[in-house]
Amino acid sequence: MIYDLQAALSLTYVWLKAGHVIFVIFWIAGMFMLPRFYIYHQESAPGSEEEKRWIERERKLRSIILTPAMILVWIFGLSLAWVTQAWTMGWFQMKFAIVLGLSGYHGWMVGYGRKLAMGLRPVSGRALRMMNEIPGIAVVLIVILVIVRPF
Ligand code: HEM
């Protein structure tokens, strides 16, 4: 009986981890693309056909890829943390803090898209380009923490 449970848990564990990493890739790919869309959007003439096309592309990227992928990264990630009892480990606590920050950045990006769709452009293209580095830096730190486990 106990062996069946262990076998089931370890089988679940590898599928959970596979699902986790798959949706991490989709989420982060979307996080790299969306600021780029916003930058090109802001280079288009306000009210133009091109701007309308950017609004539609951004809406689709957010609703079809970005937000569903983030939700699935969290579901698989929290399930993994439960199965492995990762809560107590230093690397996981630091990783969790960075992922909370990344999720906050995701929320800000979704909110900014709504502003753009209303014709507002409060942030400069230059600032958006700098912000585009955030997911890159976060990914480097997260992957080092979860693979190397320095503490
Ligand atoms: C959303 C919150 C997240 C939670 C709760 C979470 C939790 C976890 C846990 C518990 C593991 C399993 C570690 C083990 O095998 O013992 C794991 C693996 C992993 N996580 Fe996350 N994670 C999250 C988000 C992310 C993000 C945003 C990334 C990348 C940007 C990421 C990248 C990875 C990778 C690459 C692995 C596999 C590591 C390995 O093969 O050992 N995770 N995650």
What features would you describe in this structure?
The protein has about 150 residues and is mostly helical. The chain has one domain. It contains 5 helices and no strands. α1 packs parallel to α3 and α3 runs antiparallel to α5. The chain is elongated. The model has no long low-confidence stretch (mean pLDDT about 95). Bound molecules: protoporphyrin IX containing FE.
Task: Summarize it.
The protein is mostly helical and 151 residues long. Helices cover 85% and strands 0% of the residues.
Residue runs with pLDDT of under 50 for 5 or more positions: none
Average the pLDDT over all residues and give the rounded result.
Answer: 94
User: Compounds present?
Assistant: protoporphyrin IX containing FE
How can the largest sheet be summarized?
none
Distance between the termini: 35 Å
What is the number of strand segments?
A: 0
Query: Percent of residues in beta strands?
Result: under 5%
Secondary-structure element sequence?
HHHHH
Structural class: mainly alpha
Query: Rough shape?
Result: elongated
Bin the helical content: over 70%
**How many domains?**
1
Determine the number of helices (DSSP H or I, runs of at least 4 residues): 5
CA radius of gyration? 19 Å
Sequence-ordered SSE layout with sheet pairings:
Blueprint: H1 2-42, H2 49-84, H3 90-117, H4 125-131, H5 133-148
Bound molecules: protoporphyrin IX containing FE.
For this entry, give a set of tags.
binds protoporphyrin IX containing FE; 5 helices; mainly alpha; 151 residues
